[in-house]
């Protein structure tokens, strides 16, 4: 989404008598879906903003626009109420901004759904001695339990799953590894508020072997015989963990997962497709 | 997240001289992570709200609380500015509410990440005649192109991937089907604003065969020979679609995907793990 001009846009409107009126509008950028995106940057008096917004909405409706998006940075939180009064609803928020939207067309509302899932990875890194890379965390739900777990983490914004797995292993243990495949994934709901989680168990091939734990989150990191990992009471008692451990163990029996294959979307964007290779 | 009481909470605070002061606080519910969640329901004067918020923050800090969450319904948008002035940032928003958060502890900030991905499914339903269920949509990017596509859709909040696939097939074509497995999935970034998409290609087994298109979104629906589907110029020209078609074709050559296996998380919650069965 490109940023809009900071100056007000001036629109020309023809009246039936061909008189040209100059209208001040909010600085909106048109997208490819008959939508308008307004990214506010500078403070403005709420009443003046309200007037501009109403005039702009009227013009955009006449132009056949459909979805009107207003992005307000957190420093302009005093303008939110004005936008809501004009019939906008919240669409999504990040720490530093709120996106509001209003559908102004008579056509079917096709506002895209908000993000619903968080995505995390667990990295299964096994060396040629059938040892798996495990960690103990300083904080979190396994703190003080003595449980050794796979390196895990949440993907960063815009980061591919395969890249996130490599990054987390490097950050938590110092080990360089290559992504091989996705072995399995798990979905859970209402993990935090109404959102869901997807957790991908990824297999990686180590390219270095010295373990150096990261200090801020990791208590300890080491290579552990895979049978010892799978035999931990916690793992055996929890069917989710137990199943994942079995999946990892199965790697020695020709279990093949989904590999990351770069492809291109219809709009030309590079996307990874995770699939079996032998098709 | 349980809803908080609508009445103000009264906290008792002991001073060094053992005098008990009565403080009015916002109605916060404590969670299991030393967090406090305040769900505002009724209008309140912003100045009064600000005073209560400051007093509450002071008290919660003394109690060793860490993350303070304020949920504001859209009708109380006039209170957002007050919360922001007390150092809160946005966490997430849905059409009818905004969640703000502030970390008040000296310990490492462990506020959970916001949802980053939307999740969609594509349903590959093949009958015993090697025909695949395809649709043409009334609107959207394939409108008017003549392209026949697999039934697709976005999962609903809290809905499992396997259930979403069954639902979309039923809604778009009237066909009853059983979920068999995930054949592949694709990830793409910056699909809408800064968010990402995960798209799961799911294989389903039909249990009925009469096709009845849904009227509001679907132009037409039918069974089509799978080779004809894969030979469509659009499919062949777009590597992502082409690869998915090859994956579907491979089903006749013993390609096995990831099955949905119900397991339980460590907190006892049922979660689906998608994995190969033969481990």
Topology:
The structure is a homodimer of 279-residue chains.
Chain A: E1 9-14, E2 20-25, E3 28-30, E4 36-39, H1 46-62, E5 67-73, H2 80-85, E6 89-94, E7 97-103, E8 117-125, E9 131-137, E10 152-154, H3 161-173, E11 177-192, E12 195-206, E13 218-225, H4 226-230, H5 233-237, H6 239-250, E14 259-264, E15 270-275
Parallel strand pairs in A: 4-5, 8-12
Antiparallel strand pairs in A: 1-2, 3-4, 5-7, 6-7, 8-10, 9-13, 11-12, 14-15
Q: Could you name the CATH homologous superfamily of the largest domain in chain A?
A: Nucleoside Triphosphate Pyrophosphohydrolase
Overall mean pLDDT of chain A stands at 84
Quaternary arrangement of the chains shown?
homodimer
- Per DSSP, what share of the residues of chain A sits in E-state strands of 2 or more residues? 35-45%
Bin the helical content of chain A.
Answer: 10-25%
For the largest beta-sheet of chain A, the strand count, sense and barrel status come to: 5 strands, mixed
Q: What overall form of chain A do the CA principal axes indicate?
A: elongated
Biggest interface pair, residues each? A-B, 83 and 82 residues
Write the CATH architecture name of the largest domain in chain A. Answer: Alpha-Beta Complex
Radius of gyration of chain A, Cα only, in angstroms?
26 Å
The separation of the N and C termini of chain A measures 37 Å
Low-confidence stretches of chain A: 1-8, 10-21
Strand count of chain A: 15
Given the structure, what is the number of helices of chain A?
Answer: 6
CATH class of the largest domain in chain A, please? Answer: Alpha Beta
Which sequence of SSEs, written as H and E, runs from N to C of chain A? EEEEHEHEEEEEHEEEHHHEE
Family (chains A, B): Belongs to the Nudix hydrolase family.
Keywords (chains A, B): Hydrolase, Metal-binding
Protein name (chains A, B): Nudix hydrolase 7-like isoform X2
Pfam families (chains A, B): NUDIX, Nudix_hydro
